[in-house]
């Protein structure tokens, strides 16, 4: 297993949010039996640019387990090009931070992320247009292709290599400003 260091990080220290980003934990902070140092940060007071606490909530990209560590245990945010394929597939299965409870809300979309060779894991349910946007924003730095489909399995958003290919920027801007009335197939 590769050991990651601060040299593998795009951002280190404080002054930036960790939420929704892949972070590298110090090897010394992890139990010896833990299979990896890469985690998705889902929140916590320590995840803020100016932390109001020390705790950060994480999901392991090795085994999918949720955990809590301290901000000082985080070496920094991983450079996206260094994320291995197995961890990309695990990341693709994580709903965005703040996503609504799937047992109490009706899913409106499903999100998929693809490796360059076409491999992907099963989609994740997304319960609102905002969750769909958050999923894309969370995945796009790390994934080759991100696709969001509606309940009828029609594509409503697609990003390839970090660039929006569907819908066009004007339609997306209208949606973000609340003028679109919802994300639907055109």
Number of helical runs? 3
Strand order of the largest sheet: 1-6-2-3-4-5
* Helix content bin: 10-25%
- Assess the beta-strand content as a share of residues: 25-35%
Sheet of most strands: 6 strands, antiparallel
C-alpha end-to-end distance: 46 Å
- Uncertain residue ranges: none
Please, how many domains?
2
Tally of strands: 11
Provide an overview of this structure:
The protein has three helices and eleven strands; from the N terminus they run E-E-E-E-E-E-H-E-E-H-E-E-E-H. With 186 residues, the chain is of the alpha+beta class. The termini are far apart.
Question: What is the secondary structure topology, with strand pairs?
Answer:
Elements: E1 9-11, E2 22-25, E3 38-43, E4 55-60, E5 66-70, E6 74-78, H1 85-91, E7 109-114, E8 124-126, H2 129-139, E9 145-150, E10 155-160, E11 163-166, H3 169-176
Antiparallel strand pairs: 1-6, 2-3, 2-6, 3-4, 4-5, 7-8, 7-9, 9-10, 10-11
Brief rundown of the structure:
Helix content is 14%, strand content 29%.
Summary tags:
3 helices, 14% helix, alpha+beta, globular, five-stranded antiparallel beta sheet, 186 residues, 2 domains
């Amino acid at each position: 297993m590769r050991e990651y260091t601060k040299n593998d990080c795009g951002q280190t220290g404080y002054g930036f949010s960790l939420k929704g980003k892949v972070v590298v934990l110090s090897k010394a902070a992890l139990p010896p039996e833990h299979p990896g140092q890469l985690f998705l940060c889902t929140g916590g007071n320590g995840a803020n640019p100016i932390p109001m606490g020390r705790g950060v909530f994480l999901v392991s990209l090795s085994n999918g387990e949720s955990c809590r560590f301290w901000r000082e245990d985080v070496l920094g945010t991983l450079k996206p090009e260094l994320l291995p394929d197995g961890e990309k597939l695990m990341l693709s299965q994580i709903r965005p931070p703040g996503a609504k409870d799937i047992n109490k809300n009706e899913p409106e979309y499903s999100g998929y992320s693809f490796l360059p060779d076409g491999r992907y894991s099963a989609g994740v349910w997304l319960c609102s247009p905002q969750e769909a946007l958050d999923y894309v924003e969370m995945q796009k730095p790390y994934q080759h292709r991100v696709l969001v489909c509606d309940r009828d399995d029609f594509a409503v958003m697609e990003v390839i290599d970090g660039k929006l290919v569907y819908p066009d920027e004007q339609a997306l801007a209208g949606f973000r400003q609340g003028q679109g009335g919802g994300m639907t197939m055109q």
